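Quick question, first post here. What does this chain look like in 3D?
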Amino acid sequence: MRLPGLDVLRAIAILWVMLFHSYLVGGVGDHFGGAEQYGWMGVDLFFVLSGFLIGTQVMRPLAAGRSLDLYGFYRRRTFRILPAFFVVLGVYALWPAWRETPGMQPLWQFPTFTFNLLYDDSSHYAFSHVWSLCVEEHFYLLFPFAALLMWRKPSAGRFITLCAVIALGGMALRAALWLHYYQPAKLATDGTSGLMFLRYIYYPTYSRLDGLLAGVALAACSVFRPAWMARVHRHGHLVLLLGLALLGASIALFTQRVGFAATVVGYPLLSLALMAIVAAASGGRSWLARFRIPGAGWLAAISYSLYLSHKGVFHLVDSAWGDRLEQHGLLLFAIYAVATLVGGALLHYLVERPCLRWRDAGVRRPAPVAIAEQASG
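> Answer (accepted):
Ran it through. Tokens below.
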């Protein structure tokens, strides 16, 4: 059983991110300008989806009185994430023509998933989109233990308090980082403001927990307060409209993407918007939950491989065809699209999918966990 609404959101997220990263090859035309500008929000959508789906996997057996199979959890995550990642990392390391910029951060930062904490050179930007995978890996590593710790004395009040502390603490931390690192760099003349923003505010896990937290909160509601979740699903259209309204407010706030207000308030506001949209997509009566869009399930299935490979494919196409087809924007866009889908599909079918089959060979899992696992890959 698949959740078509979540497939649609995952497909939207990966297409939105790739549209944003098209700036590396000059963009895709003025008519996509608005969507392209805010495509980085697709990563936050991935965070909310991961928080919801992984949170459900971890909390559902605890709620049912079963022990949490840590070995099984980390085994699934290892086979899901590492094979395709190491293949793409190998390509980046061994084939400089693949890199979207000539320089890379030290190689050891990638397999240790510390890139997002140590990025310090704007000329070493190749494979920089791995920052979000670092955030996800830190979440996978720590969240099961945090859930077990909370489960020792389960309390809705304690959970809500912890969520509030994390959200408000993140806002305070980003405010302090903005004032200490970004504002002085912005006023300086050495052009380091962008590097300071990425290094200390946008990339680090400790300042980007809002999306994951929103997803986990939604998972907790689904697992421990199913009546509340059922009510959300019964009013799916209204919840979806609320999410879209909050998304519109987030977009307006992020008009100044690196401004103080956007930095402090924007990420939790965006996460609330995406949480409502994910809630509406996860079941019930909203059109997003009920209707299947052709191709969305396939894009959702290969989204991880697409995310890993798309920048390298962009660069290869740009090197081979960018100058010759500069005046044929529609044709060039079609070549980019086809090449990127082919590259992601090859990585998925040759590496990711065989490893997932090997992982799942002979493994029997409870049906509810299997649903979440299929939805999250």
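Residues 156-187 form the longest helix (32 residues).
The chain is about 75% helix and 0% strand.
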